[in-house]
Amino acid sequence: MKALVVDDSKVMRLMVIRALRQARLAKFDCDEAGDGAEALKKFEEGEYQIVFIDFNMPTMNGLEFVQRVRGSGNTDVPIVMITSEKTEAIQQQITEAGATAYIAKPFTPESLSSTLEPVVEAIGE
Amino acid sequence: MNSDAIRWAYIDGVKATFETLFQEQLAKDDEASTQPVELAGIDSSISFTGDNNAVLHLCIPKETSEGLVERFIGAPLAFDDADMGDAVAELVNIAAGDVVARLADLDCEVRMGLPSVMKGQFTVVQTNQEQCLSLPVRSSSGKFHIQVLFKPSETKS
């Protein structure tokens, strides 16, 4: 499954990729991007089946990325927001922007798995 | 609303994050000097703006940072490694998310900024006054300091 992992922290990108592998939900082939703008460019050029993106980033944050992708008419590719922000207001913004799912940091392979299972199953259908 | 509750929400957010990440409770370092402390290591900070304006710092000695980061990312990382700052920044970022949620529960709306880190030699001032909250703590990876600097006269009370 071709995935785009977006975070301004290289360490977090590696942790997300490792957790995805440990979750064993699918065989993820991951590309990386360091912010929303780079992600948008890669997204437009590549054929990704799922995107994992951090909320809080410089240049273009995760919320703007979701708004831009959904605004362009792409409602098919699941976008999973990963964030340390836990307030209801932020969760509402994420949902309203059109993100498919939300994962709070810190996450474990188990918490990642339980959130992603229905998302990954839906891609396979 | 209790101003003290807001001030301590920053410290409690860090403590709760460490408990979640490392399954251990941070304890106050009662042996810490009350005098300014010279520290060689890394200072990771993040700002908060809104109903309360503050900057949260984690001032972590070199040895402690290596231990914490190894437990955080699951692999050893030398202090001088280019990714060390990235990892410690992520720690303060996750803690900040907990702080924002705690403050929201106190009807205090804040937004967190982006984390930043500095490596080098620091002087940590051990003082608890209106504009500064400082707590030396012990973890199984070593000692470090949690410090919160508040913008004057803007603590919602």
Describe what you observe in this structure.
- The model of chain A has no long low-confidence stretch (mean pLDDT 92).
- In chain A, 48% of the residues lie in helices and 19% in strands.
- Chain A is of the alpha/beta class and 125 residues long.
- Chain A has a five-stranded parallel sheet, sandwiched between helices.
- Chain A contains five helices and five strands, in the order E-H-E-H-E-H-E-H-E-H.
- In chain A, helix 1 links the parallel strand 1 and strand 2.
- With 157 residues, chain B is an alpha+beta fold.
- Helices cover 34% and strands 34% of the residues of chain B.
- Chain B is built from three helices and seven strands.
- In chain B, strands 1, 2, 3, 4, 5, 6 and 7 form a seven-stranded antiparallel sheet that branches.
- Chain B starts with a helix and ends in a 7-residue tail after the last strand.
- The relative contact order of chain B is 0.28.
- The interface between A and B is medium-sized, with 21 and 22 residues.
Q: Would you summarize the structure shown here?
A:
Chain A has five helices and five strands. Chain A has 125 residues and is of the alpha/beta class. In chain B, helix 1 crosses helix 3.
